[in-house]
Amino acid sequence: MRATHFLNVPAFIEENPEQSGGRKSAIETEKLSMKKMISWNVNGLRACLGKGFLEYLKESDADIFCIQESKLQEGQVDLELPGYHQYWNYAEKKGYSGTAMFTKEEPIAVTYGLGIEEHDHEGRVITAEFPEYYVVTCYTPNSQDGLKRLDYRMQWEDAFRAYLKELETKKPVIFCGDLNVAHQEIDLKNPKTNRKNAGFSDEERAKFTELLEAGFVDTFRYFYPDQEGIYSWWSYRFSARAKNAGWRIDYFCVSESLKDRLVDAKIHTEVMGSDHCPVELDIQ
Questions:
Q1: Cα 5 from chain centroid?
Q2: Predicted confidence (pLDDT) per residue in 12-31, tens digit
Q3: Apex CA 183: angle with CA 178 and CA 184, to 5°?
Q4: Strand, helix or coil for residue 231
């Protein structure tokens, strides 16, 4: 089954690397079905399709698979994904931004955007409601060279945080995607030379801290608080990936109330096809 595509629907609709040795879940022994979720900024889905995207999606066998930066307009790609429901949000600008979510279980409801007109032209957010929680995928606006778009980014951050907290009044939230920020110095190879660059400015980092303090958990750091050298994005310039000169800017975060259901968080640095690699959350 394939979903009908809608853009800019109001945000609330009432309707039916391989790491090891991390922290263990408090309910590890409970016999709950585990859900596997993947998020990947594909940096242009049409290009990624030629680099093994469908093979990886099938191999991952994820219950929920989210992508960012699809760079598509409606009708440009018609994916056949047996066993998955498909939901797409497209930017109005051609070849820019865009998100998608593929789910094995049909959601109760799916909404697109934040429900705020000024933020909903770039196809950046999809929200799927499931019986136990919401899943939100997001492609956060880049502040751009010279921080030209930083003021808009700050407005977006406040609106996105408020959106998540409003969802959380109904049920817990899992959100994922390219959040375009390396939170701490441990989250990028060269922090000192990037202090005033997009993705590591004091302002962006402070907003991410504010988001976590609002009651959310960075799942990778929950399991691996001191892990160094694990990144999710590398510039195409200067052989950055070969040198592992990267940034961790792709995340799965969850409501505090879901913390004890976490099983693992992974960053699949070995997966090629984009300048980002997939990140994974396993949750009971």
A1: 20
A2: 333 433 444 445 444 443 44
A3: 145
A4: coil
Spatial distance between the Cα atoms of 78 and 211, rounded to a whole number of angstroms: 36
Domain regions of the chain by residue span: 35-283
Report CA-CA distances (Å) from 269 to 22, 35, 138, 247.
17, 21, 20, 11
CATH no. for 35-283: 3.60.10.10
Residue 158 bears catalytic tag? no
Kindly name the residue from 63, 120, 178, 275 that is annotated as catalytic.
178
Q: What secondary structure letter does DSSP report for 18? A: -
Q: Is the pTM of this model over 0.85?
A: yes
C-alpha span between 205 and 194 (Å, rounded): 12
Residue 41 and residue 24: Cα distance in Å, rounded?
A: 28
List Cα–Cα distances, 39 to 42, 135, 150, 179, 201, in angstroms. 9, 11, 25, 11, 24
| pLDDT per position as a tens digit, 127-161 | 999 999 999 999 999 999 999 999 999 999 999 99
The tokens for 262 are 């976490």
Would you call 202 exposed, middle or buried from its count of C-beta atoms within 10 A (0-12, 13-18, 19+)? exposed
Nearest to 253 by CA among 142, 168, 169, 136: 136
Three-state SS at 26: coil
On whether the CB atoms of residues 52 and 274 are closer than 8 A, the answer is: no
Check 90, 139, 163, 251 and give the catalytic one: 139
Query: Is 139 one of the catalytic residues?
Result: yes
